[in-house]
Amino acid sequence: MTSSTNEIPNVPLRGGTAIPQLGFGVFQVPPEDTADVVVRALRAGYRHIDTAAAYRNEAGVGQGVRAAGVQRDEVFITTKCPNDEHGYDRATRALKGSLARLEMEHVDLYLIHWPVPAHDRYVETWQAFIDLQQQGLAREIGVSNFQPAHLERLIRETGVTPAVNQVELHPYLQQAALRRVHDELGIVTEAYSPLAQGRALGEPAITAIAEAHRKTPAQVVIRWHLQLGNVVIPKSVTQARIEENRDVFDFALSDDEMAAIEALDAGDRIGGDPDTFIRP
Ligand SMILES: NC(=O)c1ccc[n+]([C@@H]2O[C@H](COP(=O)([O-])OP(=O)(O)OC[C@H]3O[C@@H](n4cnc5c(N)ncnc54)[C@H](OP(=O)(O)O)[C@@H]3O)[C@@H](O)[C@H]2O)c1
User: Fold this and answer.
1) How far is the CA of 181 from the centre of ligand 1 (A)?
2) Does residue 113 surpass a pLDDT of 90?
3) What is the pLDDT of residue 1?
4) Model confidence over 26-52: pLDDT tens digits?
5) For 7, which DSSP code?
6) 88 close to 121: Cβ distance less than 8 angstroms
7) Residues 6+ apart with CB under 8 A from 267
8) Rounded-to-integer distance, Cα 128 and Cα 131, Å
């Protein structure tokens, strides 16, 4: 494969930067292993790492970037404000704490991890995000696990639209209605748990497509995300899978294959319900 077919496309964001459409997630990567996993991901060609304060592995992400010898401006780093750090002052301190752990001057994208509607402080948190972006501490600001009503309220009350909404999205939870809302509002859809944490990979419709292309089920699912236009951030600590998940730019799914995966939608959530999830 030539390097040109292997290149990861960038998706423009409203703050003026661009996010690599394929990134690498580090949820559930143990803190002590994170630097090594990040080095291996960067060596495999990923240039976008998705972490969160709640994952307790931001320090390893920063160490991995430096150990890999990748320039700071060549890698896109996302982290997230935890649920127990909502509110203007707390969110401001939370980002500064993340930057200290990452040992970085800024993040490329800072997300409100969950809306936590029961605490009703996500609008105030967003006000802090707007100022943090103006101060240059976060190049782009966005949200995660926001429902349409939460997005609409943020925009109505602050006038500032999130660049990204990172949501659970995979063949069993395709989020078509939410994706339409994102398109209308100019918000980029970012898919988390994109492989349904591995559960989608034994699905007969997917294994059949994989066989037809001589690719793996994970590559087919990642390719499906890319063709939908999603930013996608699969996680793996396994060397062969890190490389496999990166190798998705030399084939394309047909309309029929896209439709066969679309037919798997069941509205099945693996993670928390955004309307009620509250854990830090
Ligand atoms: N915003 C949020 O609330 C939120 C919530 C969840 C996740 N996320 C983000 O999204 C990222 C990805 O989601 P996720 O970690 O939940 O799930 P995922 O990426 O859908 O799946 C990860 C699981 O699939 C396995 N896997 C990866 N590639 C594979 C392959 N090619 N073949 C077979 N198995 C494979 C991994 O195993 P091994 O690691 O053992 O190889 C791991 O068990 C996270 O790391 C995090 O950055 C965000």
Assistant:
1) 25
2) yes
3) 40
4) 999 999 999 999 999 999 999 999 999
5) P
6) no
7) 172, 173
8) 5
The rounded Å distance from CA 219 to ligand 1 centre is 13
Cα angle for residues 160, 76, 241 (degrees, 5° grid) = 125
Of 144, 188, 193, 237, best ligand 1 pocket probe by most atoms within 8 Å of the beta carbon: 193
Report the Cα–Cα distance between both ends of the chain, in Å, rounded.
Answer: 43
Query: Residue 59, Cα to own-chain centre: how many angstroms?
Result: 18
Q: Whose CA is nearest to atom 16 of ligand 1?
A: 193
pLDDT of residue 280: 73
Asked whether 8 and 47 are in contact (CB, 8 A), the reply is yes
61-95 per-position pLDDT tens digit: 999 999 999 999 999 999 999 999 999 999 999 99
Which residue has a Cα nearest atom 9 of ligand 1?
192
pTM over the 0.90 mark: yes
Q: Which ligand 1 atom sits nearest the alpha carbon of residue 198?
A: 24
Domains annotated for the chain, with CATH where assigned, are 10-198+229-239 (3.20.20.100)
